[in-house]
Amino acid sequence: MNKIALFVCLVSGLCLAIPLVAEVHTTEDSTKSNPSVRQHAVKDFHSYANPGDVRVRHLNLELEVLFGEKILKGIAILSIERVSQNTQAPLILDTRTLNIAKVETSSDGTNYTPTTFTVGSLDKILGAPLTIKLPEKVDRVRINYSTDPGASGVQWLEPSQTAGKKDPFVFTQSESIHARSWIPLQDTPQVRITYTARVRTPRNLLAVMSAENDPRTPRDGDYHFWMPQPIPSYLIALAVGDLSFRSLGRRTGVYAEPPVVDKAAREFSDTEKMIQATERVYGPYRWGRYDLLVLPPSFPYGGMENPRLTFATPTVLAGDKSLVSLVAHELAHSWSGNLVTNATWRDFWLNEGFTVYLERRILEAVYGRPRAEMEAALGRHDLEEELATLDERDQILHIDLTGRDPDAGSTNIPYEKGALFLRHLEETFGRERFDRFLRGYFDHFTFQSITTEEFVDYLKKNLLDKYPQLAARIPVAQWIEEPGIPASAPKPTSPAFARVESEARRWLRNEIPAAKIPAARWTTQEWLHFLNSLPQALDRKKMEELDETFHLTRSGNSEIAFQWLMMSIRNRYEPAYPRLEEFLTSIGRRKFIKPLYEELAKTPEGKERAMAIYRRARPTYHPIAVASVDEVLKWNNP
Ligand SMILES: [Zn+2]
After folding, report:
1. Residues 513-535, mean pLDDT to the nearest whole number
2. What does the pLDDT read at residue 28?
3. DSSP E strands: which ranges in 20-66?
4. For 572-613, how does the pLDDT look when each residue is reduced to its tens digit (9 = 90+)?
5. SS3 277
6. From the CA of 577, how far away is ligand 1's center (Å)?
7. CA 504, CA 514: separation in Å to the nearest integer?
8. For a tag site, which of 8, 272, 410, 496 has the least CB within 10 Å?
9. Is 130 in a helix, a strand, or coil?
10. Residues taking part in catalysis
């Protein structure tokens, strides 16, 4: 699509985007589910904002990207609405290490007058509240500010940290509560806003956002964006770098650095098929385009479901589509998470449990049931392994995160336990009924943020109460409010995995040499299951035999390499140490690096090795990954 907004630039250099009404057809669904649906606020322990009194409806953002200083210089204009009788209520926003230069208010969107504001003291988890005095009848607030070079949601990369090695790169990661480190906002997922943005960058670089991106936009260092659907703040995202684009289909494509983009396009070529498979069951894709952005390897997550533009780690580019469950996952978020959103971070399982369930359904539709069942079985394995290490309070879907960083709730519980619960519902009520229920759920709560209680209420009315005999078979309260997994939980099984286990047993009993294991046609998932089913302790001879036969130390598949390196640390298999060091200094994905450092830290020599590697790697990691590894290694000498 061509430009979708008129940009009216005022004398001050400030530009306002005015959506062209004729182009609003992509937002058909959003208009009928305007964010005004939720007027009541729910308690969110991870925000200072007061959306029960004053609500932000729209953000107009202007950013200048200053690579030299590692700063985003911004002007945020918030359109606000008073929603309570308290006409004296100030506007309270979330911030973290933002330098606020000036705050003004306006009642006509043209004339702005300075107003008083205070920035509260800095809390380690929450940041600091920005309290703004609001004169009566004011409906716009304009804030001039800049970010801190160490902003928790922004990572600045030197050219040496990119694939192209020529230009710097910057990207944001707002989930869970990091949007506040680069935009002053009501940073709680219960508040949904639309946004427009103008981003200025060095001329040779391209900016992309979680908004309408026009792949044909001229590269001129001045970019305009519009996000017409109301989204929570954690889905606002920006990346700037030397990016190329490849089309994957009518409404899909991939952005990446030039040396990576063709490989990424081949890996993700099934994306359009995945969208169609999801639409067949869960209703239309409501966001216009679906593009992917492959980031440099320091991206701390596998993927981030930024609407219209999934951010993805390059560690899924295995060359054989074996790790594209990540695309299925992030795409599924276009329904579960982005369309229907957790209202607070204790409801996070509504985002992730639903998404893992949908992800497996998409895999089943595109690659067949055996593949989806393998992934489900691996998921259950990971869940059980983690359950053994978690405090009871952290095994609960509807988790209490009061006083804690919401990132602490990002375990397998919301993901795999949540998905298992939905699978239990599917198996109990039958796929047809459950599909109908979920489709209705997405339609009913479209573009809304909901709590666990609201979900349970909807579930009761629309499924449980309709089939009381079936409902009696499923312990809903136990699933949601209690630790552990109910005994009646489904156990995904895979015949292929059973064969892999039997080969593993034969090899362990020395009935066959490694060379006779029929691994040539194994999928990545079968490999992972094979490694999972070996005992924790393996002697040097066995490790060597596997490595010599299958070259696991040199594996280019990030998931297999990770499992092998975990085994190598556990069994002090030194030939893999140089690869371990290379892995830890070239990849910043938290899912991989945190467990590797944890495993190293279990012995004094390992801890020493970990500290030496981390000293070099730490400056290249994302702040979110740094926070996790600092804790693992009790790091205090930056
Ligand atoms: Zn997810």
Report:
1. 97
2. 35
3. 54-66
4. 999 999 999 999 999 999 999 999 999 999 999 999 999 999
5. helix
6. 32
7. 9
8. 8
9. strand
10. 330, 415
| Cα–Cα dist 376/417, whole Å | 11
Measured between alpha carbons, how far is 80 from 49 in angstroms, rounded to an integer?
13
Residue 30 — very low, low, confident or very high, per pLDDT cuts 50/70/90? Answer: very low
**Token couple for 171:** 């990207």
The answer to whether 401 touches 345, Cβ cutoff 8 Å, is yes
DSSP label at residue 461: I
Integer CA distances (angstroms), 360 to 45, 407, 492, 507, 634, in order:
32, 24, 12, 31, 37
Residue 225 has pLDDT above 70, yes or no: yes
Alpha-carbon torsion angle 439, 441, 445, 450, nearest 10 = -140
* Helix, strand, coil % over all residues of the chain, rounded to 5: 40, 20, 40
d(CA 401, CA 344): 10
Calculate mean pLDDT across residues 508-526.
97
State the Cα torsion 436-439-440-444 to the nearest 10°. 170
Tokens of 215: 């792949």
Give SS3 for 231. strand
How far apart CA 197 and CA 569 sit, in angstroms, is 47
140 token code pair: 């716009």
- Side chain identity at 541, as an amino acid letter? K
Average pLDDT, the chain: 93
For residues 443 and 452, give the distance between their C-alpha atoms in angstroms, rounded to a whole number.
17
Could you give the residue ranges of the DSSP H alpha helices within 305-396?
325-332, 348-367, 369-387
pLDDT tens, position by position, 151-173: 999 999 999 999 999 999 999 99
Q: Which two tokens stand for residue 138?
A: 């004011």
DSSP one-letter code for 189: T
Mean pLDDT of 318-326: 96
H/E element, 623: helix 623-633
296 CA to centre of ligand 1 in angstroms: 19
Res. 18: pLDDT tops 50: no
Mean pLDDT (whole number) for 105-112: 97
User: What residue type is assigned to position 148 of the chain?
Assistant: D
Q: Report the separation in Å between the CA atom of 303 and the middle of ligand 1, taken as the mean of its atom positions.
A: 8
Between CA 348 and CA 437 the distance in angstroms is 20
Q: Which residues contact 117 (CB under 8 A, 6 or more apart)?
A: 100, 103, 130, 131, 132, 133
Distances (CA, A) of 633 to 386, 390, 615: 20, 19, 11
56 touches 194 (CB < 8 A)? no
Amino acid at 480: I
Distance 310 CA to ligand 1 centre (A): 11
Task: Please give the structure tokens belonging to residue 437.
Answer: 């229920």
Q: How far apart are CA 339 and CA 44, in angstroms?
A: 20
Helix (H, G, I), strand (E, B) or coil at 33: coil
Contacts of residue 5, Cβ cutoff 8 Å, sequence gap at least 6? 17, 18, 19, 20, 196, 224, 226
Q: Show the tokens assigned to 81.
A: 């609405």
